[in-house]
Write a structure and sequence with these properties.
Radius of gyration of chain A: 27 Å
Protein name (chain B): EF-hand calcium-binding domain-containing protein 2
Organism (chain B): Zoarces viviparus
Number of strands of chain A: 20
Shape of chain A: globular
GO molecular function (chain A): calcium ion binding; Hsp90 protein binding; iron ion binding; manganese ion binding; protein serine/threonine phosphatase activity
Helix content of chain A: 40-55%
Helix content of chain B: 40-55%
Low-confidence stretches of chain A: 1-11, 319-393, 401-409, 521-525, 615-620, 704-734
Structural class of chain A: alpha/beta
Number of helices of chain B: 8
Largest sheet of chain B: 2 strands, antiparallel
Radius of gyration of chain B: 19 Å
Strand order of the largest sheet of chain A: 1-5-6-10-12-11
Oligomer: heterodimer
Organism (chain A): Zoarces viviparus (Viviparous eelpout)
Number of helices of chain A: 30
Distance between the termini of chain A: 32 Å
Keywords (chain B): Repeat
Strand order of the largest sheet of chain B: 1-2
C-alpha cells in the first residue's frame, strides 16, 4: 500500500481540499478492501469446514455399515441390503472380465453424432475426443467400454510407483485435482498444449466427483495414456474410489449419462481405479502423490503392495487364503468371511441396535470407536497398535480374525500396507511438528515439517508435490518450500472462489507455476459482485447447516439462557453455536449476515431467528418438524444409503427396501422412526403408487428456504454438482 | 448471561474477544503472531478507518524489533485502547459524498476513471497501480466506463459487513 507525501502536480494545481478528499477516499477504499478480504477468508473457511466434515460423515457412515456387517446374522434382510458393497469384485479371472464387459454386441446407432473410436488409438483420435467434448458431445458406451478395457490392460503393467526422468530437456507438466471440471482441463490444454511426445504430463488424482464432466475427463486422460504411454502418468486420488463416488456425484453422473450401460462402466472403473499407480518419482528427487505422507510412510513398502487389492481405500482387502477351498485369491464370498469359526459372534439384528450408543458413530475421533468394540484374545501390544490406527473398526475386525488363524503375519502386513495407502491418499500437511490422525477428514494424518524433513532425508528426495486441498491461488508452498500443494480445479467452491494452477518441472527440478481461472462469467462480474456472490452462497449453505441442527442449538441456547428470556448476548450465542456445530468458524463475525434484523438492545432473539428459517416442501406440512430436520441434516447420508441399497443402480428402490433404509437410518441416528412415519413419507412420494420409489424425486421433495433469501434454488451445494451452481450465474444481482 | 471474566467491564472482554478473533484469522502458525503486513487488514476489519500514517504509528508501537512479526500480547492492549476510544471512526456517508464531489467539479454525479486515477495515484496517500486497477475494476460501470460514485456509496453503505 502506498504511503507517501502529497506531490503537487505541475499541470493541475490541486487545492488543499482536493488533496484532503483524495486522502479520505483512499482511507475509505482501503478499509473496504480489508473488510472484503476478511469476509473472503471466512467464506473460504465455511466451504472448507463443511467440505471436510462431509468427507468425515461419509467415512463414519461407512464404518457404521461395516459395524452392521459384523454384527448381523447372515440371513438378515438389513444386512443383505448393504452387503453387496462389501463384496470384492466377483469376477476376477481375465477371461471372465472380457466376457462380462464385452462391448462387441453393443450397437452404435446411425443417428449417433459423437466420435467413433478404433483401436489401437491414435493421437488424432485423442485430440478429436477433446474437441468433441468441448462441443458437448458424449462418447457412446460401446467406445467407453472398449477404451476402459484397453486402459485396464495398460494400467496393469504399471508399477505402484512410476519413476520418470526429465532427460532430453523435457519439461513435465503436473496437474492437481480436476474434480470433473472439464473447462479447467481444456484451459490447461489451451495454454500448455495437449500431451505429446514432447509434452509429458502427470495428473495427480481426484479426476472425478463434484464437477459435472468427470467421465469426460477420465476418457480424455485414459486416451492420452494409451496413445503416449511413456509420456502420460496418472496417480490415484482419494476420489478414485467407488464408495466415495456414491456420495460425491460421480456414480450419479455415469448412471445419468449412460442409462443402459452405466452399471457396467462403473464396475469396470472400480477395477481401473484400483490399478492406478499410487505415486510418481521424478529424477529420483521429486515425489508426486495425491494426499501426502505420515511418519510411517515407506516407499519400499508401497512399491511392494498389491495395489489392486485396495479397491476402496476405506476398507482393507479381505484376507487371502493361501490353500484350500472354495476361495481363490481375490474372491470373497460371504460364506468365507462370515463362517461360524470366526471369533466374532453375530447375534444381533437391527431391532436390537437401539442399544448402541450413538456416540460410537458420532465421535469425531475414530480412535474412540475402537474402545467400544469387544476385544478378546488380544495382548497389550495389539491394543496400542490399534490405538494408532485410523480405521480401527475394520482393523479390529481383521485383527480378531487373525487371532484365530495361523496367518497372522500376512494379515498384520495387510494392515500396515493399508495404512500406508490411506496415508498416501488422505493426509494433509500442518504447520506444527509431529504427526496426528486427520480427524477432520476421517482418514490419513496431519503431518508436520519435521516429518517432511525426516522423510526426504530417508528417501534422498528434495521435494514433495501433492494435491488434495483447494488453495486460493491454485497452489501453496509449506514446510520450508519442501512441500507444494497443487490444485487445478478453479472456481471450486463457487465462481470466483479460487484459481487453478499447474506446474512445469524441467531438469533443474525447480517448480514453475502457472495459474488460471476458467470462467467466462468472471470477466462480466465485477470483483465486488463475484466476491459477494460467493459469500452469499457460503452463507446460504451455512444457514442450511444451522437449521439442520435446530434442536441441538435451541438446547444449547436454553442452557445458557437460564432465565428463559429468549435472548442471548453475542458471546454466548457464538460459543453455543460453536459447541453444537464444531466448524471452528468466527461466529461473532458472522453474526451480522447470519442473524439479520434489528437487535434487541444488542441481544439476539433466537426463537425469532429460527422462525426466519423454514423448511418448505411440496407436501411437507403434515410431517413432523423434527423428522424434517433430521431428514435435512442427513440428506447426504440418506441419499448415500439409498444408492447403496439400490444395488443394481437403477435409481429406484422398492417400498420395502425404503422402509428398511429408514430403519437403518434410525439405528444410525439412534432415533425412533415408526412405521407410521415411514408410511407418511411413502405417501408423499410414491405418486404413481407402483410400489417403487424414485430416489431423485424423493430427495427433491424436501427443501430448505430462508424466508429472507431470494435464493430459492434447491440443494445445498454439497448434494448437487457444480452444474447446480452454474444456474446461479444467470442473475448476478441475486 | 454475562460471562465470567477478570475485568469489571463486560465491554472490555467483548472487545478483547473481537480483536483476538480478527488476529487469529491471520495467525497461520498458530503461535499468536501475525506478519506485520497483515496488521493493516486486521485493524481495518475491526471497523477502524486509520490513515496510513496512523497505521505506521501503531506498527511502530507493537512490532517485535524488526522481526516482521507482531505478537498478540503486545497488540491486544494497544488495539483495545483504539477501539474503546473510537480513535479512527468510520467516515460518514455525507462526508464521503462531499469528497467525491470535490473531484467532480461539474457535479455530474460521476467521474471518469482517468480523473479518479489522477487524484488517487498522485495525491494524498498514493495508491499503487495495483490498488488503482483493482478499484476501477470493482467500481467502474463497464458499459459506460464511468464511476457513479453516488450509487456506489449508498450500495456499499447498505452492506453491513462485519
Amino acid at each position: 500500500m502506498g504511503c507517501g507525501v502529497s506531490k503537487s502536480d505541475q499541470f493541475h494545481k490541486s487545492s488543499g481540499k482536493a488533496i484532503r478528499s483524495a486522502v479520505l477516499i483512499q482511507r475509505w477504499y482501503r478499509q473496504y478492501v480489508a473488510r472484503t478480504e476478511m469476509r473472503r477468508r471466512y467464506t473460504w473457511h465455511i466451504f472448507q469446514s463443511i467440505e471436510y466434515s462431509g468427507e468425515q460423515a461419509q467415512i463414519k457412515l461407512y464404518n457404521f455399515l461395516g459395524y452392521l456387517m459384523d454384527n448381523f446374522t447372515p440371513a438378515s434382510n438389513e444386512r443383505n441390503l448393504i452387503s453387496h458393497i462389501f463384496r470384492e469384485n466377483e469376477v476376477c479371472r481375465d477371461a471372465e472380465w472380457e466376457r462380462y464387459f464385452c462391448y462387441k454386441n453393443i450397437e452404435v446407432p446411425e443417428i449417433y453424432s459423437g466420435p467413433h473410436l478404433t483401436f489401437p488409438l491414435t493421437a488424432e483420435q485423442a485430440v478429436g475426443l477433446v474437441e468433441a467434448f468441448r462441443n458437448k458431445k458424449q462418447l457412446h458406451s460401446r467406445y467407453v467400454l472398449q477404451l476402459l478395457l484397453e486402459t485396464w490392460k495398460q494400467l496393469r503393467m504399471l508399477p505402484n510407483i512410476n519413476r520418470i526422468s526429465t532427460c532430453h530437456s523435457k519439461e513435465i507438466t503436473i496437474c492437481g485435482d480436476l474434480h470433473g471440471q472439464l473447462d479447467d482441463l481444456l484451459l490447461i490444454f489451451y495454454k500448455n498444449d495437449m500431451p505429446s511426445l514432447e509434452k509429458p504430463y502427470l495428473f495427480n488424482g481426484d479426476f472425478v466427483d463434484r464437477g459435472k464432466d468427470s467421465i469426460e475427463i477420465l476418457i480424455i486422460l485414459f486416451s492420452f495414456l494409451l496413445v503416449y504411454p511413456s509420456e502420460v502418468y496418472l496417480n490415484r486420488g482419494n476420489h478414485e474410489d467407488h464408495i466415495i463416488n456414491l456420495r460425491y456425484g460421480f456414480t450419479k453422473e455415469v448412471l445419468t449419462k449412460y442409462k443402459m450401460h452405466g452399471k457396467r462402466i462403473l464396475k469396470l472403473l472400480q477395477k481401473i481405479f484400483s490399478w492406478l499407480p499410487l505415486a510418481t518419482v521424478i529424477d529420483q528427487k521429486v515425489l508426486v502423490l495425491h494426499g501426502g505422507i505420515s511418519d510411517t510412510t515407506d516407499l519400499a513398502v508401497l512399491a511392494r503392495v498389491d495395489r489392486h487389492n485396495y479397491v476402496s481405500a476405506l476398507r482393507p482387502p479381505k484376507k487371502r487364503y493361501q490353500s484350500t477351498a472354495r476361495m481363490s485369491v481375490d474372491s470373497d464370498t460371504d460364506e468365507g468371511v462370515w463362517s461360524p469359526n470366526k471369533v466374532f459372534q453375530r447375534q444381533k439384528s437391527l431391532t436390537s441396535l437401539k442399544a448402541i450408543n450413538r456416540d460410537s458413530f458420532m465421535n469425531r475421533s475414530l480412535q474412540d470407536f475402537s474402545d467400544r468394540l469387544k476385544v478378546d484374545e488380544v495382548d497389550e501390544l495389539e491394543i496400542s497398535r490399534r490405538r494408532q490406527s485410523i480405521f480401527n473398526p475394520a482393523i479390529s475386525r481383521l485383527e480378531n480374525e487373525t487371532a484365530s488363524s495361523s496367518e497372522s503375519v500376512n494379515s498384520l502386513t495387510v494392515i500396515e500396507e493399508w495404512k500406508q495407502i490411506l496415508d498416501l491418499l488422505w493426509s494433509d500437511p500442518m504447520n506444527q511438528d509431529g504427526c496426528v490422525p486427520n480427524e477432520v477428514r476421517g482418514g490419513g494424518c496431519y503431518w508436520g515439517p519435521d516429518v517432511t524433513e525426516d522423510f526426504l532425508n530417508r528417501h534422498n528426495l528434495q521435494l514433495i508435490i501433492r494435491s488434495h486441498e483447494c488453495k486460493q491461488e491454485g497452489y501453496e508452498f509449506c514446510h520450508n518450500r519442501k512441500v507444494l500443494t497443487l490444485f487445478s480445479a478453479s472456481n471450486y467452491y463457487d465462481v470466483g472462489s479460487n484459481r487453478g494452477a499447474y506446474v512445469k518441472l524441467g531438469p533443474d527440478l525447480v517448480p514453475y507455476l502457472i495459474q488460471y481461472q476458467a470462467s467466462s462469467m468472471i470477466r462480466e462480474l465485477t470483483v465486488r459482485q463475484s466476491a459477494g456472490q460467493t459469500e452469499r452462497l457460503a452463507l446460504k449453505v451455512l444457514r442450511e447447516q444451522l437449521f439442520a441442527h435446530k434442536s441441538d442449538l435451541i438446547c444449547a441456547f436454553k442452557k445458557v439462557d437460564s432465565n428463559n428470556t429468549g435472548l442471548l448476548c453475542l458471546n454466548d450465542w457464538a460459543s453455543a453455536v460453536e459447541s453444537v456445530m464444531h466448524l471452528g468458524l468466527p461466529w461473532r463475525m458472522l453474526r451480522c449476515p447470519l442473524v439479520p434484523g434489528k437487535t434487541n438492545g444488542g441481544m439476539i432473539d433466537y426463537h425469532e431467528w429460527f422462525n426466519e428459517l423454514a423448511i418448505k416442501g411440496a407436501n411437507a406440512e403434515h410431517l413432523d418438524q423434527s423428522l424434517l430436520e433430521t431428514l435435512y441434516r442427513h440428506r447426504s447420508t440418506l441419499e448415500t444409503i439409498f444408492r447403496i441399497v439400490d444395488a443394481d443402480n437403477s435409481g429406484f428402490i422398492t417400498i420395502e427396501d425404503f422402509r428398511q433404509t429408514w430403519k437403518l437410518l434410525g439405528a444410525y441416528l439412534k432415533m425412533e422412526i415408526t412405521d407410521d412415519t415411514i408410511s407418511d413419507l411413502v405417501v408423499t412420494i410414491d405418486r404413481n403408487q407402483d410400489g417403487s420409489l424414485d430416489i431423485e424425486e424423493f430427495m427433491e421433495a424436501f427443501r430448505l428456504t430462508d424466508k429472507k433469501s431470494r435464493l430459492e434454488r434447491g440443494r445445498s451445494m454439497f448434494m448437487g454438482t457444480a452444474a447446480d451452481l452454474t444456474k446461479l450465474e444467470g442473475d448476478p444481482n441475486i | 448471561m454475562m460471562e465470567d471474566k477478570q475485568s469489571a467491564e463486560p465491554v472490555v472482554a467483548d472487545v478483547h474477544k473481537k480483536i483476538t478473533a480478527a488476529f487469529t484469522a491471520f495467525d497461520y502458525e498458530s503461535n499468536n503472531t501475525v506478519d506485520v503486513r497483515e496488521i493493516g487488514t486486521i485493524i481495518y476489519s475491526l471497523g477502524c478507518f486509520p490513515t496510513q500514517a496512523d497505521l505506521h504509528d501503531i506498527i511502530a508501537e507493537v512490532e517485535e524489533d524488526n522481526t516482521g512479526f507482531i505478537a498478540l500480547d503486545k497488540f491486544l492492549p494497544v488495539m483495545t485502547k483504539v477501539l474503546l476510544e473510537h480513535k479512527f471512526p468510520p467516515i460518514p456517508e455525507d462526508q464521503l459524498l462531499q469528497a467525491f464531489e470535490v473531484l467532480d467539479k461539474e457535479k455530474k454525479g460521476y467521474l471518469v476513471p482517468e480523473v479518479l486515477t489522477h487524484y488517487l495515484t498522485q495525491e494524498g496517500e498514493l495508491f499503487t497501480q495495483e490498488e488503482m486497477d483493482e478499484m476501477l475494476t470493482a467500481f467502474t460501470d463497464h458499459q459506460k466506463n464511468l464511476v457513479y460514485y453516488k450509487d456506489l456509496i449508498s450500495q456499499l453503505a447498505a452492506d453491513p459487513g462485519i
